[in-house]
Amino acid sequence: MKLGRYELTLEPRPALPPFHAVLTAVVAILLALAFSSVLFLSAETNIFTAYRAVFSYAFFNSHGLLATVHRSIFLLFCTYAFLVPLRAGLWNIGLPGQVYAGGLAGFAVPFVLGAPQVRALPPDLLIVLMMVAAATAGAAVGGFAGVLRARFQVNEILVTMMLNSIIFWLVAYMIKEGGPFMSATGEGESFGLPVPLHAPLLLGVPFTALLALGAAVLLDPLFAKTALGYRIRAFGESPAAARYGGIIPMALSLVVFLLGGAFAGLAGYHYFAAVPGVYKIPGNYGYYGDLGFYGIICALIARGSSLGAVPIVVLFAGLSLGARFAQGELRLPFGVDYALLGLLMITFVASHVLYRFRFAWRRIPPEALPHVSAELPQE
Amino acid sequence: MWELLARSLEASTIFLFAALGELISQRAGVLNVGLEGLMLFGGTAAFITAQTTSSYPLGLLAGLAIGGFLGLAHGFFCITLRGDQVVSGMGLWILSFGLTTYLGNPYTGPLGLERVPRFFGLSPFYPLGVMLVATAWFLLFRTSHGLAIRSVGENPGAAEASGIPVAVIRYLCVTSGGILAGLSGATYTLSYNPVWNYNFLMGWGFVSLALVFFSMWNPWILLAGASLFGIMWQLSLSPELVLPGVLSRYVWRTVPFAITIPILCVISTPWFRTRWGLAKPEALGRPYAKE
């Protein structure tokens, strides 16, 4: 674009210093918050009252803070479920499906064993079994998309999305209208877990927190320092070049989707079987699947860094919870948390441009400008 | 039986409009995976406008306008900024999913207008869909503009060299794709099922996206595929008409999605690709930078 003697262009930039990457992420988040204040405005509420309600519930209220922690663990698992395939250039948007699969598999353990067995076996063993089942189911669902991607070059976005719908309806089948997992008392939700199978708590937080934080610490070195991490990154940068370098696309797609799916399965286990006060697959399980999409944003804004995702996850967990609380408190319309999700996504997409390009503002040398006669026209 | 067929054909127009828009956009080399988002936003805008103004034409117009605007936004990101088309498409989808849930929620419930008039039980949108397919086919394969669109999707560099304005063509195609997606959403909320509910589409958009791949980028095959899926979708909603009492109704709901996966696998095999799939636009999904 030309403006007089100056020219404004978009120039690609080869690499982005980490400081700029963090800055762009912060700006994207702040912009999304600014946009969502338009929503609060339209609901005729004072913005500061609204944000104070959101933050004070999420972070400065003992009940809300605990809920934020539970949700953060869930979102961390979802974030890693998306992040690992993303590093290999693949989009795992099957988070909801894998979360449901994890929940179903976890509940299948006590269901299949039956009440007498559950009483006879040590609860710790059963809890480990449930967790392994959840991770395996998530991994199987993810791995299915990974195999199809590698073997037939089937678009993984389409396959994972189809799997989301399929498993969504399977859960409905299992827990509603006389399905196998339906509770004896209530319509539309699963049986509750027996008390010994409730996940052990450490300081009021389920032990799954340790797994999530362990993944946060371990994933970054995995990508940076190990051969597998190198392969994943190489495949993500250029699948063709990686293949010439001896990386087997089939194995690699499978590995990242298995790993990602396992994380999402654990997220399902965590929310349905480990969060105090839940311990069942509720009728509104779809909401937890939708929440999984926050994992996509967190991984994208964190630019694939597992440790970098932690503060972002905690912030969004708090915001989405606080927004729900505020909408009840201030009588806002339903879905502020969904709106925030959408706005975050679009500010991220906009900031994505700033990662890759910069605005260059330079003066055009006079000889390049079209010659304009300075003399008065002669008679 | 006729009622079921008419209803199925109406369902298939929803797939058809969205997929036809996507087909045109993909023919010009731009992939929009956020199709479902455009449909959600278009449908919600149409519903809210129709309800507040009690006018179907205004609602339809709002749906088209929002769809076109989002298509244009996708174009700006992919064509002008040369961004990643998947990132932008996913962004549009999640944006629409989130915002429509918030904006549409006060309108949850039935539309409350008299139903769109039908001819022998058939919605007027179906003949419109067939006409649009014929028009799109004629435009793409029988006119010089169509040749320009296809060449932009195959080899934008060569197209530019022969004097075709690549960016302009891509913008036009992406925007008209968006308008058609808006039309598809509006058909859903105004005529097919005039009850607003959050995330009312639940996968229609992604099935439409898959249909474009099934169609081998040919509007007539797309029409056949959309009709087939419309019938299948309607049957999955009321399985008791065919097999009463077999399996839970929830299990039947998975069928259209489950069928999509093996079809996707078959059309992705090297055998199929070399035999039939050569129609895939060569430059699909790749940003084009003018030399």
Detailed description of the structure:
The complex is a heterodimer of chains A (379) and B (291). By secondary structure, chain A is mainly alpha-helical. Chain A has 14 helices and five strands. In chain A, strand 3 (201-202) and strand 4 form a beta hairpin. By secondary structure, chain B is an all-alpha fold. Chain B has one domain (2-279): Orthogonal Bundle (ABC transporter involved in vitamin B12 uptake, BtuC). Helices cover 71% and strands 1% of the residues of chain B. Chain B contains 13 helices and two strands. Chain B is globular and about 60 Å long. The model of chain B has no long low-confidence stretch (mean pLDDT 90). The interface between A and B is large, with 49 and 45 residues. Chain B: Keywords: Cell membrane, Membrane, Transmembrane, Transmembrane helix. Chain B: It comes from Candidatus Segetimicrobium genomatis. Chain B: GO terms for molecular function: transmembrane transporter activity.
SSE topology:
The complex is a heterodimer of chains A (379) and B (291).
Chain A: E1 2-3, E2 6-12, H1 18-42, H2 47-59, H3 62-87, H4 95-120, H5 123-152, H6 156-175, E3 201-202, E4 205-206, H7 208-225, H8 227-237, H9 239-244, H10 249-274, H11 285-291, H12 293-301, H13 306-329, H14 336-356, E5 357-363
Antiparallel strand pairs in A: 1-2, 2-5, 3-4
Chain B: H1 2-27, H2 35-53, H3 56-80, H4 85-104, E1 109-110, H5 125-142, H6 144-154, H7 156-161, H8 166-192, E2 195-196, H9 204-214, H10 219-237, H11 249-253, H12 255-268, H13 270-275
